[in-house]
Design brief:
Beta Polymerase, domain 2, Four Helix Bundle (Hemerythrin (Met), subunit A), five-stranded mixed β-sheet
């Protein structure tokens, strides 16, 4: 039974929690009784309402959100725009009676409740929180644009324009976001600053119910409709307050302008502050290609090579002075616009970007934290200044979030009232008011000192060599000329071959030290010791995440350089990456145990009985660049606290996958766990076995053929691996082989059709397309299940299993030869594609340079020869796949 008082007494505002609970019991007694039976949800809900009366009111009006929150509270990844659009589509189906603008406002409020819970629990960085809030705004804008476009098309027909050859095509619109939405740093209650740009002039088709319009008229109406859907405050308030004052010509300008007119304005008429605004701009909805064309056309006007450093700093200083004149408050500290506030941090970053970004394109990042990091790498900010600004930014943004989510208002004011400040400090985890006041003073003083240093004295403006090779030059001086002379040509070659290597060096030039200091390194698998050593020296969770990402990046960089310079073969590269992934899992678990014990006070955290089970490439021991980690988290049957394990999995996944200023490690995918997205984040050993024995579908059996213990409680992991493998194969032995074959073909076809919708004409998808790697994977797993060939340490990989299947008579000589040759070819092509191009399964048919590198690495004389060989393999593989399944049928 829950001890409600003990939970409530620990909250920053216990009285608010008690009032909510009493009101819930009064008007929704059944919901209150159900809530009190769910310990973890009960704690989370009372915490939310103690922070936000707005959320309390929302839950009382919509008690069904409690059970939605129960399903979503365990999610610990940043949901992207597409995922949020899917959620919005489902929300629309169940709320179809609502007017669109009311539906959008309700959906946003519900999603913010989930995000704010992660924010309060510190399960995400400030960058992740603001990114997800921004993704939510993008999804709402995209949905509104689709609704408004359909309505206008019905009335006026489609807007048309003429291409270069005189053919008619549909004109497109891009909603460009500026400010905090433009840099993916949106607040809970921010305005959204927008521009509407359409592709070209023309007129509508006239196929609607009304007379045709010019494109200008159509797109102005479309912009008005989108703004009304998103910003209409009738009923329950608007989803967002839309600000269009930053558009060309301000309030007197048209709501939408053509691409040509918009480019002409920013290159000719725009004031310096208007160009400064474009530093933080991107496409939020509509045709992204339009924004790319716009950004490319105006980039040199924003980051001019003609302006002097003094001129750039002076222009930003004038923008700040205008803001200072507009703001006026004697009721407290404005954490955004006040002295030492967020705007001073943003303006430091933007001023230095404008001053030096003309010569150094790498500095042109819209995100404030990323900008600060890059400015520090170029020595335009000292390490101390960077640390102070980054810490102040995180503190002030969290303070701003707490202020805004209390009542859902756009406020940045920290009031003077001592009791209100005490409550705000408590919500930020300060036990005493003095500690909170000291933190506010400390951070604002640091920010203002840096701000005055950058803007106060022109002679003291930061000067540095901002060339792209500055980091390489530093590395040479540190390791000595002889070692560097031997390694730098190889690094240059690796940069040329692999954009991955080039991006790593651009982001962190000093990373070359990891290769230069180990010039004779030929492959180092001692990753666990290096990771643990780096993490052990840090005393905070954030420090451990930073150290883990820094050393991990050095290790993957070492592998990539050796790989690009052909000092590693493919198998060794994958082996090292698998070892690194397993070491990262173990180190993340150590961090998790420490954090669970410290953060939640679980005395038993050190003995956490948690097994990490791998599927996919990790399960098969073939981790490659950008591989997801498909995981299932299993606890022992004697797990003492489900709450502790739930928290542990959240922190573990966050440790492995969170995107911080130091980068990220892996994308963690838990969707293959029992019950998928509807399942809890971990499962007990017995429940896992019961699920696989009684509930799992055939597609799940095909996936779990490759289950392998990869970390955590090794004894438990090995036991689970053996038990689940036995269950899967025992179930398969009792099945009609024709049913197994039919289901395998069905699953394979569904994956192919799903990806086909995202393909462009002429694309070749080497994984999902016909004759791709999935044909081989599914053929192998089908035969393993049909003929009871169980994975072992020697034949876990696809290549080894194909040989075993042939030796056992499960594969004919013809099909064995086709699949083995096809697997070797596609596996090598996939590996090189990841190294040369990045995370993609599609051949870069329009990128002749990348195709040339791929052809050379695959030892073909020309890209055309490589494509011809690929097509031959795909045809043969598909024929073998069909033959293997048909023979069983």
């Amino acid at each position: 039974m829950i001890n409600a008082d003990s939970i409530i007494d620990e909250l920053p505002d216990p009285e608010s929690a008690r009032r909510f609970l009493a009101r819930l019991i009064e008007i929704h007694p059944a919901a209150a009784q159900k809530l009190e039976r769910k310990n973890a949800l009960f704690s989370d809900v009372l915490t939310l309402v103690a922070f936000s009366p707005l959320i309390a009111a929302t839950l009382l009006q919509n008690p069904e959100y409690l059970w939605w929150l129960d399903r979503k509270r365990g999610e610990n990844v940043v949901r992207n725009k597409d995922e949020l659009l899917e959620s919005l589509a489902r929300f629309s189906l169940t709320n179809s009676q609502l007017d669109p603008h009311v539906l959008l406002a309700r959906f946003r409020r519900r999603e913010l409740m989930r995000i704010f819970l992660r924010d309060i629990r510190r399960l995400a960085t400030i960058a992740e929180i603001t990114e997800e809030i921004s993704n939510l705004a993008d999804a709402v804008l995209e949905n509104a644009l689709r609704i408004a476009s359909q309505d206008l098309d019905n009335r006026y027909g489609s807007p048309l324009e003429s291409d270069d050859k005189g053919r008619m095509r549909r004109s497109e619109l891009c909603i460009v976001s500026l400010g905090k939405l433009g840099s993916r740093e949106l607040n809970y209650s921010s305005d959204i600053d927008l521009l509407f740009i359409y592709s070209a002039e023309g007129k509508t088709s006239g196929s609607g119910t009304r007379d045709p319009l010019t494109n200008r008229e159509y797109f102005i109406k479309l912009a008005e409709a989108v703004v009304k859907l998103v910003g209409d405050r009738s009923g329950e308030g608007a989803a967002y307050r839309v600000d269009l004052r930053l558009r060309p010509h301000g309030r007197v300008g048209p709501l939408a302008m053509s691409l040509a007119d918009t480019v002409r304005y920013y290159k000719g008429e725009a004031a310096p502050w208007e160009r400064q605004v474009l530093i933080r701009s991107r496409s939020s909805a509509g045709a992204q290609i339009l924004f790319k064309r716009f950004a490319s056309a105006v980039e040199n006007s924003v980051f001019s090579t003609n302006d002097t450093i003094e001129s750039a700093l002076a222009n930003v200083r004038r923008s700040k002075q205008l803001i200072d004149l507009e703001k006026a408050t004697s009721k407290g500290l404005d954490v955004k616009l006040g002295r030492g506030g967020i705007r001073e941090i943003e303006f430091v970053a933007q001023a230095l970007q404008l001053a030096y970004g003309g010569q150094d394109k790498w500095l042109r990042s819209p995100h404030t934290l990323i900008s600060l990091d890059r400015l520090a790498d170029r020595k335009l900010l000292s390490d101390r200044e960077y640390t102070e600004l980054a810490e102040a930014y995180a503190f002030l943004r969290r303070l701003e979030h707490v202020l805004q989510m209390e009542h859902g208002l756009q406020t940045h004011l920290l009031p003077n009232d001592p009791e209100k400040r005490r409550l705000i400090g408590a919500r930020l985890d300060f036990a005493e008011p003095t500690g909170f006041e000291e933190a506010v003073e400390h951070h604002t003083e640091n920010v203002n000192r840096v701000f005055r240093r950058v803007f106060g004295d022109g002679d003291k403006s930061p000067m540095a060599d901002s060339s792209g090779d500055a980091g390489l030059q530093t590395a040479v001086s540190e390791v000595g000329l002889e070692a560097a002379t031997a390694c730098l040509p190889e690094i240059d070659f690796a940069k040329d071959v692999s954009p991955r290597v080039a991006e790593m060096i651009a982001a962190r030039p000093a990373i070359v030290n990891s290769v230069l200091f180990n010039a004779d390194r030929s492959g180092d698998g001692h990753y666990s010791d290096r990771l643990r050593s780096a993490v052990s020296s840090e005393s905070t969770f954030g420090g451990r995440l930073s150290a883990l990402r820094t050393i991990w990046t050095e290790m993957i960089f070492e592998i990539a350089v050796l790989d690009a310079t052909e000092k590693l073969d493919i198998n060794e590269s994958k082996r090292l990456q698998t070892v690194l992934a397993e070491a990262s899992i173990e180190t993340s678990l150590e961090i998790t145990r420490h954090e669970v014990g410290n953060r939640f006070g679980y005395a038993s955290a050190a003995g956490l009985s948690l097994a990490v089970m791998g599927l996919g490439k990790l399960g098969g021991g073939g981790v490659d660049y950008d591989s997801d980690l498909d995981l299932v988290m299993v606890c022992g049957d004697q797990a003492a606290s489900s709450e502790m394990y739930s928290r542990a999995v959240e922190i573990f996944v966050n440790t492995l996958s969170a995107i911080t200023r130091d980068g990220s490690l892996y994308r963690v995918d838990l969707r293959l766990r029992p019950h998928g997205k509807d399942g809890v984040s971990f499962i007990s050993r017995t429940a896992f076995a019961d699920y696989m024995r009684n509930t799992a579908a055939i597609w799940e059996m095909l996936a779990f053929v490759k289950l392998r213990g990869v970390g955590g409680d090794i004894e438990l992991a090995r036991s689970v691996e053996h038990e689940i493998r036995g269950i899967v194969h025992e179930r398969a032995a009792l099945m009609d082989h024709r049913e197994l074959a039919a289901e395998t073909a069905k699953v394979r076809s569904a994956l192919e059709k799903k990806k086909r919708g995202f393909r462009r004409r002429g694309d070749i998808d080497i994984k999902y397309g016909p004759g791709g790697m999935l044909d081989i994977y599914f053929a192998i797993r089908f035969l393993q299940l049909r003929d009871d060939h169980r994975d072992d340490d020697k034949t876990r990989s696809s290549g080894a299993m194909l040989e075993r299947l042939f030796q056992a008579g499960s594969l004919t000589a013809e099909d064995s030869g086709v699949l083995r040759d096809g697997y070797r070819f596609l596996s090598a092509l996939d590996h090189n594609l990841r190294l040369v191009v990045g995370r993609t399964t599609r051949m870069p048919v329009s990128n002749t340079r990348a195709l040339g590198h791929l052809a050379r690495r695959m030892q073909f004389g020309s890209p055309e020869a490589l494509i011809d060989e690929l097509n031959l393999h795909r045809l043969s593989i598909r024929q073998s796949f069909d033959r293997i399944l048909a023979e069983t049928k």
